[in-house]
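Weekly structure sync - notes
Attendees: PM, LS, DV (DV joined late)
Agenda: review two folding runs queued last week.

Item 1: First target. Sequence and structure tokens pasted below for the record.
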Amino acid sequence: MARRGDNIYHRKDRRWEGRFVKGRINGRTQFGYVFGKTYREVKEKLVVAQYEWKIYTKEGNQNKATFRVLSESWIKDSESYLKASTVAKYRDYLRLYLLPKFGNHNMDDIKSADVSAFCFGLLSNGGTERQGLSPKTVAEIFRVIKHLRKYALNRDYAVGYSGDCLTIKQKQKTMRVFSPQEQKRLSTYLIEHMTPDNLGILLCLFTGIRIGELCALRWDDISLHEQKVCISKTMQRVRVGNGTKTEIVTTSPKSECAVREIPLPDWLCKYLGDAYQAGAFLLTGKAEKSIEPRTMQNRFKAVLAACGVADANFHALRHTFATKCVEAGFDAKCLSEILGHASVNITLNRYVHPTMALKREYMAKLAAA
């Protein structure tokens, strides 16, 4: 094992290992270890590990608290800076999974091995029917565990587990994109059966706005003169407290980047102008009555069945719009802003999947160059 300063070694398995002294027991030195793919990564981890161990031994042991007590304090504090839907989701994770497992344990009694075993158990047999939770869900539950760890350390409480004790790999889902034939069939049906619902679906197909943004959209958010729609709100159904009661809330979008203006094509403005109702919700034509996302999702599926298009989630409209924009040669930064993403990478990695026809076109251009 080759050494390279700072008690960092290059192992035979090609990983880098860093170690630091925790103390001595019965005359023998006890070490803590960190691992990584590069020397630099391990060096950074080593600094963090040494600092956290110092907190744990010097200050952390002086303050102990159970997972339940700290989680209640953390979730209450989170209400001041997290969206209501995020807080509700975190409460569910705590109530369903984390508190039954760790609730009565002191934070310093929960070890990294306990957290790893718990998360892998959720992957294999978690859920009401023990069918196993998705990697995405388990990764979000682990994120709550890490948030709580940071919260505890910042308040000088002892924590026995590490924040990087495991990595949960997530597979990118293949999202549904409507084919050109399906898009034409859907557009034709929507125009021939024009209702507020169908106008909203048509708007999503050609702007890529999210279902929550559509449900919160009022006519006052649309400027036919400037041919643009302003997205500044979203609608969601969230759980209230720890019970089963839910309510509809309208809030600002999921991020600052999601507040945006989207240009509208001329032909779409014509249909919007015919239905314009100042002050009303677009989907109802009434100022006091709205349609929630779950209801809109069901109506969308009914439209697909009526026009002979295979079943799809409402989000397929957004994915289809993004894919069409890429095929049309949209600049990535421009498309990212239209979709309301925080970065161009999100647009390219999550929503944009060029078709085989486009790939062949690019390959043909390369061959001709």
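Item 2: Second target, run right after the first with the same settings.
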Amino acid sequence: MQRDEGGGRSIGKRSAAAILLAFFGVAASGEQAPAPLHFLADNDDIARASPPSSVSFYVVGADGGLADPVAVSTGGNGMAGGYFGIDRLVVAAGSEEACVYASNAQSENITGIDARERRISGLFHGSPKDMRLARDGIGLALGGNTLYATFSGSGNIGAFKIQPGCKLEYAGEVHAQGLSGGTAEGLAVRGNILIVAYGDGSIGSFDVSAGVPVAHDDAQYAPGTREDFNPGAVDITRDGRYAIFGGGSTASEVQVSDISSGKITAPKVYKLGPAWGADSVRLSPDETVLYISNSAGGRVTAAFFDKTTGAVRQGCTSEPLRGYYTKFNYIGAVATELPSGSGGILYVPEYDGSGKSNIGMLRFTSTSTGCTLAETAASPVAATSGSALLSIGVYPPRPF
């Protein structure tokens, strides 16, 4: 596949059968070799007791389209909801393995899945203290060879060492509480620092050089917490210099903290337009664009980001995605098709509490005067029946 400088495509046609065969590592007749593994995975977050929840795998086609999902049981159950800023699924890339980890909030555990073989590697638990119903979800973040999990039932952040075969080994945990007693929502890790947004409007950081988090005692309230901003989502630049916070608000607002000292500093506030909320934030692979899920408004905002200064400037906002408030009520966190450039197609989970979720698709285009963000003709794609989508991931993942 080739791309022009304006983000367009030159696409060679391939049959759906060939794409499916390539996903499972088999070359179709007449092809030289299987295509690189490229898929989107979602946490279906199904809450009913039987059958268990699932992770669904979609083949990503040459044009960014998604093939019919194949569901793999997690062996546990989700909550069909919870905090927007929590990542309930992460995709890890190893030299030989493609591992997916999905949290099961109702079952209070984490499922590991070998994506190449579509099999569960195990169900993994924290300490006995974590065996409490995680009503707001279990958030996940990757840092090197360690997976971190926020257990909202106990208020702990657990550390798990990633083992061969997509397995996890519990390494320990720390009790993490905001200034007013809030539990951890979104979290992100870069190098030796872990950044957390709490449900009470405060933010804080931890040293993870030894694996298990150790608090830096730098917790502080985000600007505007008592007025019109409640941080819940976190991303960190590739060099670990800036932490970006998104959250609930009546406008699209993000905040950026310089963490180059190893601790959080008072964030700078950036207002990016009237779209409702900034409940999830995601940097593009090249760190030039910040993608924001305006969850309560059914829109996505793209803002321009300067990775040298940490400054954010207004870009463009999509129209409400098709079916907003008639087929779905909220959107979850954005994932990008490609691990380079501005990321290609944007995928957005469309949450429906009645079990009829979808995945929306948008195309970002940078122009001389700004940008555009428009839904593709193929959007949306129906998700697995019964799912309540808020978290998705793509393999190969963003390189940081």
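Discussion on item 2: Helices lie at 16-23.
Action: LS to circulate a short write-up before next sync.
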